[in-house]
Every structure is written in structure tokens, then in C-alpha cells.
Amino acid sequence: MNEVINNLVLDEWKIIEDKFIWGNNLKNETLFSIGNGYIGMRGNFEEGIYNKEFSIEGTYINGFYETHKINYGERAYAFPDTGQSMINIINSKAIKIFADDEELVVDNSKIIDYMRVLDFKEGTLKRTIIYETKKGKRLSLEFERLVSFTQKHLCIITEISQQNSSRIFIFTEIAFYCIILKKWYSTSSIGCKNSYNSPYPQKFK
């Protein structure tokens, strides 16, 4: 029988979150982190959250840090002169998703169903979410994230799938400091094409 602690279902190899609760999100972003000893990623949603009080974006590389001088009120033998802190590097997992000219994001869209699973045996983070747009159309999205143990520099999102025939727009980002590299993908039931030109340029000025 699986154990349930703080709305998380625990079994031998998995942590399962079957309901999104705002008050648990910061903690669960930490619990659903994945890494390989070199790259580490917090369990943030790919599509992001508008309200940054409930989310902290995080991607880290082991050995990439900054130093700072340590000031002591009173020094003693073997006290270090400098300290180190990990630096939150570029966010390469951001994916903006639009359906019915509406951006799908947790705190701006209606959630019909939700599940997130951290699989320790497979080394994957999987999430399924069903959004309902303001026009009443439902869109089921599946995400799977992996940080490779065989190629330490590799982290991938292996799957994003929709389960209806509506046309959606997928917008990927690599964000660091004030610079954002963007690419749009337009998908439909009859095929897929990509373009560097956003169909919604007014949204990203």
C-alpha cells in the first residue's frame, strides 16, 4: 500500500503529486528536482508561473559558482577568507504554449486534471496536465524531462504531446539575465512547421 504524506503519494520508486496545491509548490519544486551530479534542475513547470511568490526558477551546474569575501566579527584559526555560492544559470527548459490565442499557464488557466511523477528508477520527471481554455476547449499536455547519467552535459525534454486535434503554438526560450532567445513552433493535426517569427509579436515587446 502506498503511503500519502503532505498530499504526495510515495511508493518504492516514485513520488507522485496528483493535485496541484499552491501552498506546496515551492517545496515540491525542490522535491521534484532532477540532476546527475553535474547539472541540476528544480521541478519548475515548463510553461512557468506568473506569480513568482510561488515559484523559483532554478538550473545549476556543479563547479559553476561565485566567490565572496567573508567578514568576521572575530577571526580564529582556520577560518576561511572566502565563501562560494552556486549560481542560478540560464533557463533552457522554458516552453510557452498557446491555444485559442491564450497562453496556458497554471495561474491563468483552468486545470481540469493534473499529475506529476518523479521516477527514481527511470531517472525521469513526468507531468500530465489538462487545461481548459476560456473558450471551453480542453487540451491535455504530457511532459517528460531527463538529465542524462551517461552524457553529463545533456538534459532534455523528451515529450510534449497534445491529445486533441486543435492547433497550438509552442514557443521555446533560453533565458539568461535580460536576453531571451526565442523560437516558435506551430503544430496542427495535419503536420508541423517551425518559424522564428512569432504569430503573436504584440505579446513579446
Structure write-up:
This protein is mainly β. The protein has a single domain, classed as Distorted Sandwich (Beta-galactosidase, Chain A, domain 5). Helices cover 3% and strands 49% of the residues. It has 1 helix and 17 strands. The protein has one helix at 25-31, and strands at 3-5, 8-10, 14-17, 34-35, 39-41, 59-61, 65-69, 82-86, 91-99, 102-103, 110-119, 124-132, 138-147, 155-162, 168-176, 179-188, 191-195. The strands form 4 sheets. The protein has a 7-stranded antiparallel β-sheet with strand order 1-2-3-11-12-13-14, with no helix packed on it. Strands 10-9-15-16-17 form a 5-stranded antiparallel β-sheet, with no helix packed on it. β16 and β17 (191-195) form a beta hairpin. The longest helix has 7 residues, at 25-31. The radius of gyration is 20 Å and the shape is elongated. The model is unreliable at 185-205 (pLDDT under 50). InterPro entries: Gal_mutarotase_sf_dom, GH65_N, Glyco_hydro_65_N. One of its GO terms (biological process) is carbohydrate metabolic process. Residues 17-168 form the Glycoside hydrolase family 65 N-terminal domain. It comes from Caloramator quimbayensis. This is Alpha,alpha-trehalose phosphorylase.
Précis, in short:
The chain is 3% helix and 49% strand. With 205 residues, the protein is mainly β.
